[in-house]
Amino acid sequence: MDRVFVTRQMPPTGLEMLREACEVVVWEDDLPPPQDVLMQEAAQSDGLLSLLTDKVDAALMEQAPRLRVISNYAVGYDNIDIPAATERGIPVGHTPGVLTESCADHAFALLLAAARRISEAERYVRAGKWQTWHPTLLLGQDVHNATLGIAGFGRIGQAVARRATGFGMRIIYTGGSSAGDVATELGAEQVDMETLLRESDFISLHTPLNADTTHLINAEALQMMKKTAILINTARGKVVDSTALYAALKAGDIAYAALDVTDPEPITMDDPLLTLDNCLIVPHIASASYATRDRIGQIAAANLLAGLKGEPMLHCVNPQVQGK
Ligand code: GLV
Question: Rounded to an integer, what distance in angstroms lies between the CA atom of residue 262 and that of residue 280?
Fold first, then answer.
C-alpha cells in the first residue's frame, strides 16, 4: 500500500479519499513540520501532500527516491522546485479553479474595506472614540465609477473584474494573453504596466510569484501610482517590495494598502507596516471559506491519487512527466 505524508490536518473529505486508498500519515501540529522532519517523512513516502508553507526543494527530492507524486494544497506552487520535480519525473499537482470565486470575494472585501477604512473605523469604535456624527469623520474613497487595475488577468483576476462591473468600475488589466473574450464581455481594457500604475484608483495583484513578478511593485512602481491609490495584494507577499511599500504609505505616495499576503509570512511583529493605520493586514485567508477549503482538499487528494496510479492529474503543473 502506498504511504502518503500530509503535512497538516485538513478538511475531512480529502483525507477520507486518501485513507480509502493509502496509508496516510498526517502531521498533527498547526505549525509546519521542521524541514528535517519533512525531509525524513518525504523519504519514507510515495506521495506528499504539501501546503504553501512547506519548502519542497531539490534537496528534499534528492533524499526521497521513493517519492513519486507531490500534490500542493494551493493553486500557487512557488514553494515547490518544479524543475527539480520535472527532472526526477515527479508530477506536481495544484488546485486551480475551485478557489477562484472565494479568492475574488476576498480581494473585493479587502478593496472595499480599504476604500472605506473599515478596520480603522472598527478600532475607533472599540477604543471608545465614537462621540458624535461628524462630516469629516473617517473619510475614504468611492469604489463606484473608480478605475480598477488588475495586474494578472487569469482566473482570479477575471473573477475580480466580474465583481467590479457591479460597481460600475472602469477595468484595466495587464497579462491574461488568452483573456480577450472575457475582457470584451466585461468591457475591460488591456494596458501596459505603466498605464495601469498611473491610471488606477485601485490596483489588485493576481500574478503568480516567479522571477518576473518578484517586487513587481517596487519603489519606482509605487511612485507612478496616484497619491490616492489603494493597493490590494492577495497574490504573494514577494510580489511587493514591502520596504518600499512602507516608505510609500508613510510618505503618502499612495493612500492605502490591503494585504492578505506579506513578506515574510507570518509578518514579524516588529514589521513597520504594522505601525501604519493605512495598511490593513490579514493572515493569508483569501481561499478560507468552509466550502472552498474542503474542495481544495478534494482536488489535492484526487491529484495525489491519480499521480500514484500513474494517471493524469486533474491539475498538473508539469504534465510533461505524467505517464512516464
Ligand atoms: C493560496 O495562496 C493558494 O495559492 O492557493
Answer: 11
